[in-house]
Amino acid sequence: MRLTPLLTAAVLLAAPLAATALPASAATCTAPKTSTQVEPRTVVVDSSGTTGFDVVVAVQHHGCAIGAVTALVTSPTKGSAVLELSAEAGNATTTYYFGGLDLSADQLEDGDAGTWTVKSRSVWAASAGDLDAKGAAAASSSTKVSVLADADLSADATSAALKKGKISKGKALAVKGTLSRARWEAGTSTGYAKQRVEVQFRTPKGTYKKVKNVTTKAGGAYSAAFKATKDGCYRVVFRGSRTVAPVTSAGECVDVR
Q1: CATH 2.60.40.10 domain position(s) in the chain
Q2: Which N-terminal stretch is annotated as signal sequence (predicted)?
């Protein structure tokens, strides 16, 4: 699925990088500057879906002729793709080049989860006739995009004393569930062990606050023990990791009598 470019000129022109040295023959052309951006900055891919991101390169041409503009996308496993970008917008000083990359779970390795590099290359010269000559130069800039595996997190407030959501004050109560992550190579999700999750609680009119941290075990299972003290709802939060997206469970509410 191609994503619609959403970047603004103000964002695109932030922190431009200088191009290579100006050819000696140039009269009005001074070294172009480029800026590379992606949208969105974080992409979450589930175990069987397809998503993607857009690449936009802003070239401040400074009177120079601009040739091919490309972007090299490299994953953590060193897999790569070269995108041919096309000019689709611009003004008197800057031209914007657009392209996109689709990411399908069945084409990804599990090791591809993490930080990807996007490096653009813009060929330029003093005149259009020099773009294919040895005197042509290239401007480049780069950025990062996070490609994360999707996650799922369940939470269940459970107790032998809990009947139809009601429990007596002081009775033992446990919040249990499983954290799982997408495995692209297998085309399914599996438990995500050795990860910290945060159990939160809120009163009927309050906001969620942390009450305990627990670590997931084999199969991604976790359990946190409490005593029922007042009405309210529990939920569990995983803050995410370098390779897996954050996720929050649905709330589980109890009526303490």
Answers
A1: 151-256
A2: 1-26
- The pTM is what? 0.84
234: Cβ contacts below 8 Å, ≥ 6 apart: 155, 157, 175, 199, 200, 201, 251, 252, 253, 254
**What residue type is 203 in one-letter code?**
T
User: Pairing mode, if any, of strands 42-45 and 137-149?
Assistant: parallel
Instruction: Kindly report the CATH number that applies to the domain delimited by 9-148.
Output: 2.60.40.1930
pLDDT digits (tens, 9 = 90+) for 21-76: 334 444 589 999 999 999 999 999 999 999 999 999 999 999 999 999 999 999 99
Residue range 151-256 in CATH 3.40.50.150: no
pLDDT at 134: 74
The torsion angles phi and psi of 110, rounded to 5 degrees, stand at -60, -35
